[in-house]
Design brief:
heterodimer, A: about 110 residues, mainly beta, 6-stranded mixed beta sheet, about 0% helix, about 60% strand, globular, B: about 110 residues, 7-stranded mixed beta sheet
Chain lengths: ~110, ~110
């Protein structure tokens, strides 16, 4: 059975801290790993990672995929209260138009 | 361009009843996917429709069904509701059905009592 696991499930830090969120996957026919941010209801797309070792960066957020370890990390530097959200990772299955999601990491940034 | 809309936003039903949720995709998008989100299981894929045809299906019982109309609007139906069906139901639309191009709607919060 395809499975995606995120850790930690919950994280509380202070504004300005750097955080690292983890995502591991066990899926057949893996194609890509996607990260989303869910603030209120609708998840919004952050990154898609297909190649191992190549960092994707957007402002204070960055992510990298390790296909050997079947995992990915999402880093957020100099966190702000607006970064408080649930962060979801999902594995895209080759040939199938569907995503397998992890449980999400609930990140809370305290001022 | 208007985003993905879902109706109703909140719904309370009783065990054994059935429910129909609606999703209107972004104009021009032909693919609609449905997901169930619960605290315990996270976000799980239900099914995907493209041009009125179901192309992919997740591991949910037959009580969960859907359809898509010629204008790409989609409905999801759950029959014989169970307490465990309480969840946030999200739909996402895209032009081709490629998951990384999906735009999510705000969801329908279903509570089964």
């Amino acid at each position: 059975e395809d499975k995606v696991v995120q850790s930690p499930l919950s994280l509380v830090v202070h504004e300005g801290d750097t955080v690292t969120l983890n995502c591991s996957y066990e899926v057949t026919n893996f194609r890509s790993l996607l990260w989303y941010k869910q603030e209120k209801k609708a998840p919004t797309f952050l990154f898609m990672l297909t190649s191992s070792g190549i960092e994707k960066k957007s402002g204070r957020l960055s992510s990298i995929l390790d296909k050997k370890e079947l995992s990915s990390i999402l880093n957020i530097t100099a966190t702000q209260t607006g970064d408080s959200a649930i962060y979801l990772c999902a594995a895209l299955i080759q040939g199938a138009q569907k995503l397998v999601f992890g449980q999400g990491t609930r990140l809370t940034i305290n001022p | 361009k208007a985003g993905v809309t879902q109706t109703p936003r909140y719904l309370i039903k009783t065990r054994g009843q059935q429910v129909t949720l609606s999703c209107s995709p972004i104009s021009g998008h032909r693919s609609v996917s449905w997901y169930q989100q619960t605290p315990g299981q996270g976000l799980q894929f239900l099914f995907e429709y493209f041009s009125e045809t179901q192309r992919n299906k997740g591991n949910f019982p037959g009580r969960f069904s859907g359809r898509q109309f010629s204008n790409s609007r989609s409905e999801m139906n759950v029959s014989t509701l169970e307490l465990g069906d309480s969840a946030l139901y999200l739909c996402a639309s895209s032009f081709t059905g490629t998951p990384y191009e999906q735009y999510f709607g705000p969801g329908t919060r279903l509570t089964v009592t």
